[in-house]
Design brief:
With 304 residues, the protein is mainly alpha-helical. Helix content is 57%, strand content 10%. Helix 5 runs parallel beside helix 10.
Length: 304
């Protein structure tokens, strides 16, 4: 978000551009001097865009400058729109997102549920009469707890947080795998419908180490949306756990966005085929861009 700030010091007035952004739970401000008078409106808008480009610097690798500008405009419009909502309206918006995100993420993971059933369980605390699986109901509740967890965690992305998040998803559902890496259980996994083979359990720890090396190197260089998409992509490709990897990856993507003060993203079940296609582009062909473009498209479709 870029805005104009008027400063008065020792009887002298001047203007500067200010960009507010969240880093590690704190709001940071970047500033640029404009002058003792404001430029015309068209010139001011141009200077705001140029300021954003300067701040971005090398923060995008797979996004164009046009992508960056569209994303930042969308972010600003969304965040301003949310601020205008009443407390009750904000709660309703967040509840609706939580229900829809849980439904879509669970359906993407192969669960047999409906949106109505998800709403009854999560919003009203009611198990539908025609609902046969108490385990599925518990998984929905656990996913809701996972959403709360990513909004409350203010630490760094590390293995402890990832294992804790997986434990939340599986505690009381399958305690034998909750929070335990495949390397600890000495188990390999296969993904149905693709030729891609995830790392075997005996090299998994090394691959996870490479993931964190990449993240620690790139998390301040990449644009937050690109970073979030790549965290999702790389984590789901590692398949660090026996089960729950896709739900975990989507939660981690949204943790990055939440931490950076960007709107959260849902991937609708209707986009399942495209989602799998862009995953294949990376897992089979090692091409990251189609997945980043897909996540960018989902971001631009966000409504409030």
């Amino acid at each position: 978000m870029v805005y104009v700030e008027e400063i008065s010091r020792e009887g002298r007035k001047y203007f500067r551009l200010v960009h507010a952004m969240r880093e590690k739970g704190r709001v940071l401000h970047k500033r640029k001097y404009l002058g003792i008078s404001l430029p015309p409106e068209k010139r001011l808008e141009y200077l705001k865009k140029e300021f954003l480009k300067e701040l971005a610097g090398g923060k995008y690798r797979l996004l164009s400058k046009e992508d960056f500008e569209a994303i930042e405009k969308k972010r600003l419009e969304h965040n301003l729109g949310i601020k205008r909502l009443s407390f009750t309206e904000k709660e309703k918006y967040l509840d609706n997102f939580m229900i829809r995100f849980t439904y879509d993420s669970s359906k993407l993971s192969g669960m047999d549920i409906t949106l109505r059933q998800t709403s009854l369980i999560l919003k009203d605390g009611i198990i539908p009469k025609d609902f046969k699986s108490l385990k599925t109901a518990n998984q929905l509740e656990s996913h809701k707890k996972g959403i709360v967890a990513i909004t409350e965690y203010d630490g760094r992305l590390n293995l402890g947080f990832i294992k804790k998040l997986h434990s939340i998803l599986f505690a009381g559902i399958d305690d034998s795998i909750a929070g335990k890496l495949r390397s600890e259980l000495k188990r390999n996994v296969k993904i149905a419908g693709t030729a891609y083979i995830p790392p075997k359990w005996d090299i998994l720890d090394k691959e996870i180490g490479l993931f964190f090396k990449w993240y620690n190197s790139e998390n301040r260089k990449l644009h937050p949306l690109e970073l979030a998409a790549l965290v999702h992509l790389k984590m789901i490709s590692l398949q660090p756990f026996v089960d729950g990897n896709s739900r975990l990856s989507r939660l981690l993507m949204n943790w990055v966005l939440w931490k950076k003060d960007y709107p959260l993203i849902d991937i609708p079940i209707e986009d399942l085929e495209e989602y799998y296609d862009v995953l294949d582009k990376y897992q089979i062909e090692k091409d990251e861009k189609p997945f980043v473009d897909f996540i960018k498209k989902k971001f631009m479709e966000i409504e409030y």
